[in-house]
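Notebook entry, structure prediction.
Reason for the run: the old model in the group folder had no record of what sequence produced it. Starting over properly, with the input documented here first.
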Amino acid sequence: MAQEDVFKKIVSHCKEYGFVFPSSDIYDGLGAVYDYGQNGVELKNNIKQYWWQSMVLLHENIVGLDSAVFMHPTVWKASGHVDAFNDPLIDNRDSKKRYRADVLIEDQIGKYEEKIEKEIAKARKRFGEAFDEAQFRSTNPRVLENEAKKSALHERFAKAMGEMNLDELKQIILDEEIACPISGTRNWTDVRQFNLMFKTEVGSTADGASTIYLRPETAQGIFVNYLNVQKTGRMKIPFGIAQIGKAFRNEIVARQFIFRMREFEQMEMQYFVKPGTELQWFEQWKQTRMAWHQALGFGAENYRFHDHEKLAHYANAASDVEFRMPFGFKEVEGIHSRTDFDLSQHAKFSGRKIEYFDPDINESYTPYVIETSIGVDRMFLSVLCHAYQEEKLEGGDTRVVLKLPAALAPTKLAIMPLVKKEGLPEKAREIMDELKFHFNCKYDEKDSIGKRYRRQDAVGTPFCITIDHETLNDGCVTLRDRDTMQQERVPVSELRARLEDKVSITSLLKKLC
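New structure, fully documented this time:
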């Protein structure tokens, strides 16, 4: 099945099983805005809990913060967002559709990558176990040709973006013969800049209202609170401040479901370090963050680092953690060495002295910052994309199953009486009343036991227990594993001990220590 078709099925599955709905669905939705349903909000909260505990619980020198969405407008002047937070946009005159020029070119680079991967997949199928991928990549003419085209385009694109050369971006689109996906034509306008921040007003009267912005990132809330946290927490460098919160960007080309939205959530940690040590900490946090992702068990081959060749004006090192989505490797997290740019800018614009007195060297300095920033929604999507599977079973049946990490699954345990009579529902409720204090349980007595299993597979419930007539005599239930579908008899008294470590966030955190 084509990866594009798989992705469409995932999107459909999300709505059918209560993970993600289009916002304002009864009014035909609102573009690039989504609501998380009953299962989606549980999965999302578990992802956030995994991140939060990995930062704040496992690191004595990292503390939390929850800053406001509304901030003084000068914050965004100091950070550079007012003057420089822009996307290069281009219109197709025939379809009247607007696109991000950089995204069109990135997609073209992705097409060269897809051609290379198709050649490798065909060769792997042809040669089987004897296939040597490294040799094939270095010798096959078609792979080499597409690799050369990709590299040349990437170099040209990086240079144009670094210089923000809008004319060159358009010329690349023309030279690569990139067509509008809607009209199929190449009748493009010039590329121009568009600021991504949402504006609004605060004040009781029209005359007295002030223009403010919905924050386009959560990081600035951490930077402007650096002094508050450092002093009240008596924090010593190095230390970090972690935050989870909403951000807003007026994305013109919001696409690929929840991958790029106008309202989204970020998990960010800013780590303040002594100048001169920042690159060592940068490398350390790269490895720490990759370990966090790989602890979920999605396979190391599905992750890679993408080190930035052209750096933002505030950075001296930057790298992305990319995950293999159905539409290619895409960024889910960024790790940046931001130097002292942010604190210095806020000191300049606020007139406040934002420094750290280091007792070890008896000097004051402006700390440098290492940032780790991960999109909750992108992480949510990567988890779902890896978990979604269609399996053929013995006898010719198929099942759709979400093989979610048990610690992230919305429901940990489904409790099912075999029939709705003869004391089985009462016993099932008794078991649920005992276990519901320890993890999220669902009671299900409707339909045949087979249909109930399939229903729980589709939402990713890792374990089901069935209460039958023998349970009333021997105090045991049938425990079913979602992934293997194997069943075993387990005493009710052992259920909590058997399941708790497997389904708790702690089971993931232990892999990081």
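Summary: The longest helix spans residues 101-127.
The old model has been moved to the deprecated folder.
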